[in-house]
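Dear support,

I submitted the protein below through the web form. The confirmation email said the job was done, but the results page showed an empty box. After a refresh the structure appeared. I'm attaching both so you can tell me whether what I see now is the final result or a partial one.
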Amino acid sequence: MTLSSPTSLSDAPVLTDEATLSVTMECLLEHLTVPTQGDCTPQMLFQVLIRAASQQDSIEHTTQQLTGVPSGNTIRYHLDKLKDMSGLEAQLNQTLQSRIPPRIAKGKQRLAIDLHLIPYYGTPTAAELPYIYRSQAKSGTTSFFAYATVYVIARNQRVTLAIHAVHRQETLFSNPDLSACCPGSPAPTSQAVIPGSRLL
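What the results page shows now:
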């Protein structure tokens, strides 16, 4: 794949939607293992997830917009097979770290840790309960799924190095993997926690 830089005489983008989808799909297929069966292939599943994530849309609506993909129920059925959270997290971090730009991987960086809260409603199952995080009321609930991201800012671009599903009783300092970069990623000079994003 060859990507040409735009000039003052050209409006061509440096990276097209098609190229982004292709590279993302290749990376996910290389590192993530999702057991599928029947007419649902890993490529189809990732296509739906990539589209839903990029458009901030639901799986159900995304499957209705795309052609030649399984139903929303089928996608969710296969996602429900992913029971090993720590194993999935390790695969996701391997995926992220496989594409770290060389200029970042070779040097020491200042890291930031951001906390993301997804509102949760209802009664959690036994599998969900350890990941129900309590915080200040937002969107009509004090219960959330929480995940932390470790990233650097390079040339005004955010580069995510790792992601971590936060347990309900977990703190930043109880998890050394969040206080330092994962193996294979750049070593930090210091750690910056964004205001309002600290793990409590």
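Response: this is the final, complete result; the empty box was a page-load delay. The radius of gyration is 19 Å.
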